[in-house]
Design a protein that fits this description.
The chain is of the alpha+beta class. 17% of the residues lie in helices and 24% in strands. It has one domain: D-amino Acid Aminotransferase, Chain A, domain 1, CATH 3.30.470. The protein is built from five helices and eleven strands; from the N terminus they run E-E-E-H-E-E-E-H-E-E-H-E-E-H-E-H. Strands 3-2-4-5-7 form a five-stranded mixed beta sheet, with helices on one face. Strand 2 and strand 3 form a beta hairpin. The longest helix is centred in the middle third of the chain and has 11 residues. The C terminus is likely disordered.
């Protein structure tokens, strides 16, 4: 059995509009200067890691919850194709949290792949693995050399989007996580007044019934 790895908290960019007392926040972004980055939409779901033998949410609690059933079925279909000691990290967006989705391409959006050396694969390699396994990656909002003004100007609809995540395009080690990735979150983002796991499950909607049928094959 693989050793389980809890996904780290992503630090907030200095201009992020939300955060909690236990979040970390960057004071500057000089470490991104000169690097190629990719910025993807931050989806409002449950951080989930898939291994060959098992899967878990960020909490590692292992409790059963109906909102995880769809991703469990997905994992059962692709588990044999996940290399030993690798893990696929993504967002389980089956259940509605604070943002309502009506046109999802999938209920699981891949955003990173980690190999047996605990390295995050490059973004291009991540996309290749998504294609190989029939997965969807988080929507790309920007790719290019880091430019803070350009990043700050990225348009987010706070009614439909939680925020965005920036990461270096190249590979990085787990120990480099805090300087290789960061996020911007909309003002006042919360997990609803009642924590979503104890509330009624309201499924988000896929873009079409055709997409649904394809994903269920």
């Amino acid at each position: 059995m693989n050793s389980l790895v809890k996904y780290p908290r992503t630090p907030h960019l200095p201009w992020s509009l939300s955060g909690t007392s236990d979040d970390t926040r960057l004071f500057e972004t000089a470490h991104f200067e000169g690097l190629e980055v990719v910025i993807t939409e931050k989806l409002d779901g449950e951080n989930t890691s898939l291994y060959r033998e098992t899967m878990h949410a960020r909490s590692l609690d292992g409790r059963h919850h109906e909102s995880r059933d769809w991703v469990k079925a997905l994992h059962a279909r692709i588990a044999q194709d996940i290399p030993d000691r690798w893990r696929l990290c993504g967002e389980n967006v089956y259940a509605q949290h604070s943002v309502r989705y009506n046109d999802l391409a999938s209920y699981f959006y891949l955003f990173s792949v980690w190999n047996e050396h605990n390295e995050a694969l490059s973004w291009d390699e991540t996309v290749e693995w998504a294609d190989l396994l029939g997965l969807v990656t988080a929507p790309v909002l920007y790719r290019g050399i880091w430019n803070e003004q350009t990043v700050r100007a990225i348009g987010i609809n706070p009614e439909k989007q939680e925020g965005y995540v920036v990461r270096t395009v190249k590979r990085f080690r787990f120990s480099e996580f805090g300087t290789s990735i960061a996020k911007w979150v909309r003002q006042g983002h919360v997990q609803t007044d009642q924590h979503w796991m104890s509330a009624e499950i309201i499924p988000n909607r896929l873009a079409s019934s055709e997409v649904s049928r394809t994903l269920e094959k």
